[in-house]
Amino acid sequence: MNVPRFPVIAIDGPTASGKGTVAALVAAKLAYHYLDSGAIYRVLAVAAAQADLDPDSPDDLQHIISMAANLPVQFYGDRVLLQDIDVSEAIRTEEAGVMASRLAVVPEVRAGLLQRQRDFRQAPGLVADGRDMGSVVFPDSVLKVFLTASAQVRAERRVKQIEGRGQQADFQAIFNDLMARDKRDSERAVAPLKPCDDALVLDCSNMPIDQVVATIHGWAVDRI
Ligand code: DC
Q1: Per-residue CA distances from 164 to 21, 96, 158, 169 (Å)
Q2: What's the topology of domain 8-218?
Q3: How far out from the chain centre does Cα 110 lie?
Q4: What distance in Å separates the CA atoms of residue 176 and residue 159, rounded to the nearest whole number?
């Protein structure tokens, strides 16, 4: 059977590079679906924490791996539900991000979440953001972008984001956490964070967001 292959635009990059905001805006401009794959890893992290599971314990890790394959996550616009409970805010904490990054090094966790991510590929097309969208999840993406920015700029953006939620942010702690996360995401054996050979690398340290969106949208329009 010939399965229709709707076009995918893959936007990968390190934490706080702005890829989530950019990917959502590019998706809206193209009237495409949008997949925030990091949110799926974060929901698993929240589910594991709620069940009091410790990934350093082999028994608990087995439990987390089986949760990954059957994770009851649903997206409604910008709301994220875990088994009917709204976890949209809970998944955005630094703790959830760190736990997501720890779980993301486990190959069986990644394998368990693979099909769930591929299911987002629906008509008329998809913009997907993450770490391995272009390399593993959608290797036949029509456009692969690696969106990056300096660690300083990314930490500043993360501070603004947290303060925008009315919370306090410690720049140095955030900077250190971001560097540790980059290191873990880039050095893991499976699907490490790095640009694919066929990715277009865009450093947006000094670019306003609308220019980043316009650049990627322009590349996409040329290829779809
Ligand atoms: O993009 P994010 O910060 O929400 O992602 C949280 C963590 O999930 C990130 O540190 C690594 C992991 N992740 C991944 O390994 N692969 C993806 N495609 C998306 C996220």
Answers
A1: 15, 18, 10, 10
A2: Rossmann fold (3.40.50)
A3: 13
A4: 12
Q: Which atom of ligand 1 is nearest to the CA of 12?
A: 18
Contact 71, 44 (CB under 8 A): yes
Write down the pLDDT at residue 3. Answer: 53
CA distances to 52, 138, 171, 191 from 33, rounded to whole Å, are: 33, 14, 34, 23
What does pTM read for this prediction?
0.91
Q: Whose CA is nearest to atom 9 of ligand 1?
A: 101
Domain boundaries, the chain: 8-218
Residue 110 CA to ligand 1 center (angstroms) comes to 11
pLDDT confidence of residue 5: 83
Per-residue pLDDT at 139: 96
Rounded average pLDDT per 10-residue block, the chain, 224 residues: 77 92 97 96 97 95 95 91 94 90 94 95 97 95 96 93 88 93 86 89 95 98 94
- From the centroid of its chain, how far is CA 106? 16
| 3 state DSSP class of 80 | strand
Which residue owns the Cα nearest ligand 1 atom 5?
Answer: 38
